[in-house]
């Protein structure tokens, strides 16, 4: 029997609702397949931990997580703690500390769900966004001087390194090659951002030479939003910087039906450290504690985690259970136009596994 050690970090808000739901589904799946076991350890890190200890995770938190095979993460963010404190104190600490430089975000319109786009027949919107996850606009470089004075100045410096851009391009080209259409769109802003983004374009063109079978094109990030809305079928695999992809992937999730269904993997491709899988949504203050959160993004993230662990059959089985539930349309949360709660969707997916 294969065994995997999973670190579960529900975090804050609806993270505490969707991660237990995801673990329920995963354990049911493991029992049914009877081929692997999941040894799950749950960590109570997040804003409550911060209120009692002064930090979102213990000082040696990364050391604690290192031996795990994967991390299953909910969301972090609390109405009483500034967002930059929560984000940098937990999620980014793990992403950067474990060099999870490839953030992979698949988006498609699941069976039975409807895109808000008027013209989007099934199969048209099927994208994977690859987000650079270690540097760029979120490198954390910058500072503030003369705080509170009229002459106050703040800088937020984007960092692009040849090594960082090259590795994310190689990852994105390889992913594009593995998909049927073998098509990659490089998102840029090299008209206005004339240093980092010009190097980004140059490196994309260099890496493209090693992937002659991948069709590649280039789109400015602002034009990309228009193309996503007007010509969704013209896109397949997309690579973008940390900030650009952050924004485009929220739009992508909305175009696929709801932010509540979208999954992501923060991947350390060399597998020197555990990778982390999470829904792309946040802690959703407006619905937390009510049992209304859509757990599908968390379930789909579990599919990505299983793929990463090498459990391809189990991953497919879970994905088709999710799709059976969306296709039936009878057990959907409010964000998808239904009236079910987290628990009912979880039960429906568990039933669909059998
Ligand atoms: P959000 O994703 O938490 O919520 C945006 C909207 O989508 C809300 O109306 C919410 O109710 C809805 N929504 C989100 N997930 C849903 C789900 N599973 N089911 C049904 N509806 C859902 O984004 P927001 O409001 O900008 O941020 C709230 C907090 O979360 C902030 O503190 C923010 O910093 C944090 N955040 C954390 C992230 C993470 O940990 N990865 C990602 C995004 C935001
Ligand atoms: Mg975001």
UniProtKB/TrEMBL annotation:
Q: Which reaction does it catalyse?
A: (2R,3R)-tartrate + NAD(+) = 2-hydroxy-3-oxosuccinate + NADH + H(+); tartrate + NAD(+) = 2-hydroxy-3-oxosuccinate + NADH + H(+); (2R,3R)-tartrate + H(+) = (R)-glycerate + CO2; (R)-malate + NAD(+) = pyruvate + CO2 + NADH
Top-level taxon of the source organism: Bacteria
Q: In which pathway does it act?
A: Carbohydrate acid metabolism; tartrate degradation; D-glycerate from L-tartrate: step 1/1; Carbohydrate acid metabolism; tartrate degradation; 2-hydroxy-3-oxosuccinate from meso-tartrate: step 1/1; Carbohydrate acid metabolism; tartrate degradation; 2-hydroxy-3-oxosuccinate from L-tartrate: step 1/1
State its Enzyme Commission number(s): 1.1.1.83, 1.1.1.93, 4.1.1.73
Per its UniProt record, what SUPFAM superfamilies does this chain match?
A: Isocitrate/Isopropylmalate dehydrogenase-like (SSF53659)
Note the Gene3D superfamilies from the entry.
Isopropylmalate Dehydrogenase
Query: Where is the Isopropylmalate dehydrogenase-like domain positioned along the sequence?
Result: 5-349
Protein name as catalogued: D-malate dehydrogenase [decarboxylating]
Q: Which organism is it from?
A: Vineibacter terrae
Higher taxonomy: Bacteria, Pseudomonadati, Pseudomonadota, Alphaproteobacteria, Hyphomicrobiales
